[in-house]
Specification:
single chain; alpha+beta; four-stranded mixed β-sheet; 4 helices; 10 strands
């Protein structure tokens, strides 16, 4: 049975719909109105093997803040819904990803306890029309909505585009590992009996 979810969230600032399939092949259709975010979500889908559709209508005449943060909220909610009861999944995932001069670590735990540790030095204030300070806000929103413990650390890097791209690719690969089913796991991978 495929693990899928569709989430729609509408506020006075944004109207966002996300559909994802955790057991996909990495196909995506992304329209956020922010070119660089579209590119990053496409990379995330490809490297996580998640099939992903994202439609965002936001108040971009203000700035990108509401659109990016709310997209993170809805994506996190969709991940949480698609993962379901977490029975049989590996729960943890990590990736150390190189991209040219950049080396990026991403590790996550689908623990049910949200937390973000974000350690990156982005030198450029923008990539395209995207304010780079919003990258942390995006991952914060995903981590809390998905109830995951998420660590993102730039080990080294110079180019802001490369660092952010490495984040999304590594996050995709870490998520793919965490949601993978393992036939050795009976029920939940926890001694508490709950996640």
């Amino acid at each position: 049975m495929e693990r899928t979810a569709s989430i729609h969230r509408q506020t006075k600032e944004t109207d966002i719909a996300v559909t994802l399939n955790l057991d996909g092949t990495g196909e995506s259709s992304i329209e956020t109105g922010i070119g660089f975010l579209d590119h990053m979500l496409t990379l995330f889908a490809r490297h996580s093997f998640v099939d992903l559709t994202v439609r965002v209508k936001g108040d971009l005449e203000v700035d990108t803040h509401h659109s990016i943060e709310d997209t993170g909220i809805v994506l996190g909610e969709a991940i949480k819904a698609a993962v379901g009861d977490k029975k049989g999944i590996r729960r943890y995932g990590s990736c150390i990803l190189p991209m040219d001069e950049t080396l990026l670590l991403c590790a996550l735990d689908l623990s049910g306890r949200p937390y973000l540790v974000y350690d990156a030095q982005l030198k450029a204030e923008r990539v395209g029309t995207l304010e780079t300070e919003m990258i942390r806000e995006f991952f914060y929103a995903v981590s809390y909505s998905a109830a995951m413990n998420l660590h993102i650390k730039e080990i080294h890097g110079e180019n802001t585009h490369h660092i952010i791209e490495a984040m999304f690719k590594a996050f995709g690969k870490a998520l793919s590992a965490a949601v993978e089913k393992d036939p050795r796991i009976r029920g939940l991978l926890s001694t508490k009996g709950a996640l």
